[in-house]
Write a structure and sequence with these properties.
mainly alpha, two-stranded antiparallel ribbon, 2 strands, elongated
Length: 109
């Protein structure tokens, strides 16, 4: 399983948490070593902890062009329910936003 180049990682974990997590890992068919290796690979790839989220951190966020494009695609495909069944019961996000702006502010679409 291991090689001579494997390193041992030591960490302090409350005993109760260790026991509970080990029980879950056993049910899932994994070992603590697999969990630690997975966590290390995640941090190596994404440069953050698996549970970190930029949405939870205060401050300004900067999206790169790939994220902006993906977000725009998701918003374009998003359907919003409406009570105006003459429009088929749904609008795209852009249509709903334009209609709301027009009604609220007299803005042109």
């Amino acid at each position: 399983m291991g090689t001579k180049s494997d390193a041992i990682v030591a960490a302090r974990v409350p005993e109760e948490i260790k026991e509970q997590v080990n029980a879950v890992l056993t049910k899932l068919g994994y070992t603590p070593t697999q969990l630690i290796n997975s966590a290390y690979r995640y941090v190596m790839e994404f440069h953050q902890l698996p549970f970190e989220s930029s949405a939870l951190k205060p401050g300004k966020r900067v999206l790169d062009s790939d994220h902006k494009h993906k977000l725009a695609e998701e918003l374009d495909s998003l359907q919003v329910c409406t009570y105006d069944y003459s429009k088929g019961g749904t609008l795209t996000f852009k249509e709903a936003l334009a209609e709301k702006r027009r009604k609220e502010y007299g803005a042109k679409p």
